[in-house]
Queue: 2 jobs
Job 1
Amino acid sequence: MKAFEISSEPIDLQAFRQKLLDRSCGAYVQFDGWVRDHNEGQKVLRLEYEVYEPMAVKEGTRILDEARERFGISNAFAIHRSGLMELSEVAVVVAVSSPHRGEAFDACRYIIDQAKIRLPIWKKEYYESGKAEWVNCQRCARSNN
Amino acid sequence: MNVKVRYFAAFREATGCETETLATSAVSPAELFAECAKRHAGLASYSSSLVAINDEMAGWEATLKDGDEVLFFPPVAGG
């Protein structure tokens, strides 16, 4: 298991815990991002992630390195799904272990926040109305709809 | 010079292609994007995105070289 991965298969949550288990650590923080059934007033049926893997892995690994350096945590891993996903599936997981909880919470928050704005990943939502849209692109794509 | 252009997500759907090789006199990604928007009417309505050259994030005023692969990213939405 590398520090940052893209997966087209369901994420094995237990593997994270095992990988990060460390006798010098008293804290383990894991964030799971789930596929939600609504967004901005629309009912979402399913979604699709498009990932440019070479750069997503490079940038994701960079974010994890930054988190280790900034917060002094012992270890950090993250994984993001690609492809079609159904409601309540786990889309992203960030896991951090450290001697104490404060830096583990802070690092976990940092990693997921940075991942959302820096990784070359795009989310297409399929709505109950039959429409589908790339998230964050509505404004710039208005004339195409 | 020739450059390869790669489109993702909304941009790929707007242009109807994933990659294309262009003979261009554009000196920067900004100029190249403007050229691409002229070639593909669907792309003209897009105003903001990130750009990468040869798999490294780049600025819009970076200098293009012959053989570069330029990646145009629509607004990202991971997580």
Note: The helical segments of chain B are 9-15, 29-39.
Job 2
Amino acid sequence: MYAQMVETGQQKVRSAEDMSAEEQAFQARVDADIKIEAKDWMPDAYRKTLVRQIQQHAHSEIVGMLPEGNWISRAPSLKRKAILMAKVQDEGGHGLYLYAAAETLGVSRDQLIDDLHAGKVKYSSIFNYPTLTWADIGAIGWLVDGAAIMNQIPLCRCSYGPYARAMVRVCKEESFHQRQGYDIMMTLCRGTLEQKAMAQDALNRWWWPSLMMFGPPDGESVHSAQSARWKIKLLSNDELRQRFVDQTVPQADYLGITMPDPDLKWNEESGHYDFGAIDWSEFHAVLKGNGPCNRERLATRVKAWEDGAWVRDAATAHAQKRAARQLGEAA
Amino acid sequence: MSMSTEGPSQGASAPSGGSERSERGGAINQWPLWEIFIRSQHGLAHKHVGSLHAPDAEMAINNARDVYTRRNEGVSIWAVKSSDIVASAPGDKEALFEPSNSKVYRHPTFFPMPEEVKHI
């Protein structure tokens, strides 16, 4: 998902015998759906895992602005341009809500940003794919934001209060993103044959990477099981992926375009769509830094940060000057 | 619960707007953390919505406008330095809130009213 394969630092899921009295009390609160707040006692591993997860999530929002920002100057109309700018601004805001949630766990904003820029921490694999045509902006809103919503709605119920509250805000804003994407796809699919072909081409390229967003099958993953126990992961990767497929295929049918998967078919018995095997070697290559755009994305992100340094410096200088002036007036 | 539950826990609050520069230009962390409260259109009290970093109060308000009111969420913003908020400690929960648990007569439902008696 936006946070993929989050490590918990555990060799096995912690059982009651492994836990101190404090930790047992903590787990009992989690089991009873009582939210954990910033100043409450929490196990170190829970804190560290949450920092990793929220940080990855925040970075994904921020890096996720880049593939779309690429098209702001080339949007086909003023209306589309204004909408896209509003969406990209939202992503920046979502990153900020999440950084603030991570900071409640005792890490600093500058450290989080440094870690991203140094390539020490991940962001979602999906943002390492290129946006080649305008239809890609439609496909991203429809598929990528659709997948994100799938993951984020259950996270509104997660055990950590500040993270859950950030998710509530994000979810409220995110459905506009998905709809504007689908609206772009509808417009293209009702247009010329060439425009419809563009929509199909975007779907062909974004479908499999979107399914990979949910991460590999959980299988026997200790990390997934521990995160589920802590209620910072509420549904398994495969459950979320299946829901996403079931929800999205009829939407493609409506558009009159098809998923690039010959094995995709409705299974009457299970009441779900069956779909083909995912190429996990591609996913792992992208996570390792070898996707089509990894280097470009990080370089663009670092440049944006460095180019903005004078703005941050000016704001600091302005605040200091005004504080000094006020001090002078008071004297 | 307490307002500053969003605030940094482990004493990690931002160094207060000092002149200290990080090696890189424009570090955010030297900016204080502000808690943001918004009053919505309908005359309700200001409600905590989140936090942000800003070099001073005026810029905190401007940032809050951009971050927390992109969709007409409010008609008024309060920005309060996180470090100025005094909060109850989680460990004090019982001492603070337990005494009211036994005083059920503070709720109107404690007094059953006869069917025939209206408007009460």
Note: The first strand of chain B starts at residue 33 and ends at 39.
